[in-house]
Predict the 3D structure of the following.
Amino acid sequence: MRFQVFLVVFFLGCAGARTTTPPVSPEPAPAPISAQPSLPISKSNTWTFRYTPGAVSYRITRKAVIANADSATEQRTSTNVTHEVVTLTSSDSALDAAAVIDTFSTTVEPGPALPMQVPTQISASLTAKALTIYSSDTSCSPTSSILATDLNNLLVPFPSPLNLGMVWRDTVDVKGCQAGIIMSARVTRSFMVTGEVPGDPRPLVAITRTDSAELNGEGGLEQHRVSTHADGTGTAMYYLNTETGQVIHLVLNQILTFDIVAEAKRQRLKQETSEDFTILP
């Protein structure tokens, strides 16, 4: 289990340069997210959502449990809380984003707290078709990787208009690096407009997302050559305020099963991750 701490941190923050294929629509509706409660019937059928320029703060909590895929008797749990500020500004045909982590706390049980460098900042550009992230970090920083992943989740090129029951799909190619392991991932995401849900002070538009992912990586860790392959699935629920142009709440869940080969030995692990993004006043 020597690689578990690394993997908990890495798969929470596997991110970097991103390219997205054009959305495909229509698609068969994805399976419902069973963890979410039943949603009320919408009074409206069409909405328009555009991100509003300005600064928005989020509190993000994460939990990851990783264990031997064949036995859950030995496992580790990572909990993480961050405070992030995302500032959007308009440009010619895009929204420019600057994101900063100013608070970052991670605890792994059993094990010591993991020190992380803050503040950390990256930038990005969102167009109607894709999000592009720019980072000058070359040190495999966990905070930079997690921040880039958070932007990938928060800044989505939503179609306009959003119609009730509308379904679309995109494919995201992600590259990242932590602790000397260079990773690449391909994630296929399917979205569906579920409808309006109660909000305060006004209703929010709910959008579900289901993912399938494949990851591959290779590099040096603890003076050993390491290679890894992972497959996984995920779900997400977005709550959008169409009046303010903000993602008010975002909940994500992910399950990954992966093989790690080091020193000619193979280890098969399973990781379950949950994340909660809440906008702050």
